[in-house]
Amino acid sequence: MRKNSLCSALMIVCSLFFFSISVHAEGSNPPLAEMKETITATALEYDIPPEILKAIAYVETGYKQFDEDGNPIISPDGGIGMMQVTPNNIDVPNVDEELLANDIEYNITIAAQVLNDKWNLAFIPKVNDGDRHSLEDWYFAVMAYNGLAKDNDPNLYPGSAYQERIYNRIAGSSLIYWSADYFEFPVFDIRYEDGDETMKFPEGVDYTTETVTPTQQMYQSGEITYLDPRDGAVNLYVGSISGNERVQMLPYTPLRVTGERDESPKMDNDFIYYHVNSVTTDGYISSAYLNEGSEDIVFSDPIEDERAAALAYLSMNNYVNGYLDGSFGSGDKLKREHVAVILDRILDMEMPSGYELKADDVDSDHRYYEEIAKAEYNGYLGVGGKIRPTEYLTRAQMASVMVRAFNDYYNEPTTEHTFEDQDSIWTYETINKIYYNEVTIADPFRPSEDITRSQFALFLYRTLVEY
Q1: Rounded CA gap, 462 and 370, in Å?
Q2: Phi-psi category of residue 298: left, alpha or beta, with phi > 0 → left and psi -120 to 50 → alpha
Q3: pLDDT tens-digit readout, 369-386
Q4: pLDDT tops 60 at residue 6
């Protein structure tokens, strides 16, 4: 498997200046953010991931339509303008070469049409499912945009072939990678005929990639997204990107896109800042951290953003369910039988075949008999001899259950915290452990108080998600 080498470390945008569509001198390049805004709008019009069209603009000319003397950039082989469209080598009819050279928006539009034509070529291989919104799936269309010449053969020129430079740019500038290498493509079957350096592909041979990366720059107004967990908490800029007010948003926080967006004015950054709404605030956040969500991860009663993140995480992993009215029942008390069900969904608990409950307060036809039996066998519930399935779980009992079930997730405390209600705590060791590991931050702890469904969701989230 070949791996693309990536660009050097990126400068992350710290401030963003706003540009309207400005009137600029003929033969001069408009501000970079304005260029990117035009490219993104055109990409969306033609159903092309903006990451791809922006990477082409960068690799071709560094986002320039005109040179330093104000003349349109024209390459020796006839490529014109920012997107280096070559009229003699494209199938787009009635191209106006004067507009192509002098009108930036026209140049980008023709480039989008050319790339779409390449996508529709019948003789190039298909990658994965041929999904227009998956970045890897555009590999051969991007190759064909520059030409199927031998110079673009990735087997002969790994890392430097045109399409590989495009994907290197996307990985770095759109900030979508997790490590030093991201996009991976298989070794392709590419052939040549005698005396012809044009790539040929065997019929019926398509490819799959290990990574399938959805575009993060095609979200529309009203769509639900959630925050990527890879870098922990990320900044949401309140008011505007240029302001200093920021809020740390936790992984899996659901965010509703408003439709408003801003482009970065930095050459190294091609990601978009989307305006989004959370439970308690709104602001701008980088597209690099947004993943496609659904209404299923949004509840009507999460109270605040950390709780919304917890519910979204647990819901998308099918650990918990909400109610039919769209709420989670955040303030409802949690029954012990439901704890067994949630633990089994998370831990996939095992028990010997034919195991029978030792506790005598659960009927064999109980709807959660198997989950309760697993919880008893593994020592998470019923250590006092009874299950008491319909009783509510107290906060002190919750601490004990969490430590029994998730002890491997926790560090051993090196300090002993004294709670305001220390005298009422009878399970201090387990409560101190979850406090030390910041599973709970409550002081006083209130050990006898029944735990709510959303409180338990928070404890699970703080245990299972790193941020």
Answers
A1: 27
A2: beta
A3: 999 999 999 999 998 889
A4: no
DSSP secondary structure string for all residues of 95-151: --HHHHHH-HHHHHHHHHHHHHHHHT-SSSPPBTT--TTBSGGGHHHHHHHH-SBGG
Cα 75 to Cα 62, 67, 80, 110, 372, distances in angstroms: 14, 11, 7, 17, 72
Band of residue 180 on the pLDDT scale cut at 50, 70, 90: low
DSSP 274: E
Query: Read out DSSP for 306-353?
Result: HHHHHHHHHHHTTS----TTS---TTSBPBHHHHHHHHHHHH-----T
- Please give the helix or strand (H or E) that residue 256 lies within, else none: strand 254-263
Q: Which 8-state DSSP code applies to residue 439?
A: S
Q: Contact 63/267 with Cβ under 8 angstroms? A: yes
Position 189: which residue type? D
What was the pLDDT predicted at 90?
A: 87
pLDDT score for 307: 95
The answer to whether 226 and 312 are in contact (CB under 8 A) is yes
What is the number of other CB atoms lying within 10 angstroms of the CB of residue 438? 9
pLDDT, greater one: 3 or 53: 53
How far does the chain reach from its first CA to its final CA, in angstroms? 32
Which H or E run contains 246? strand 246-249
DSSP labels, 402-425 = HHHHHGGGSPPPSS----TTGGG-
Report the number of secondary-structure helices (H) and strands (E) in the chain: 12, 9
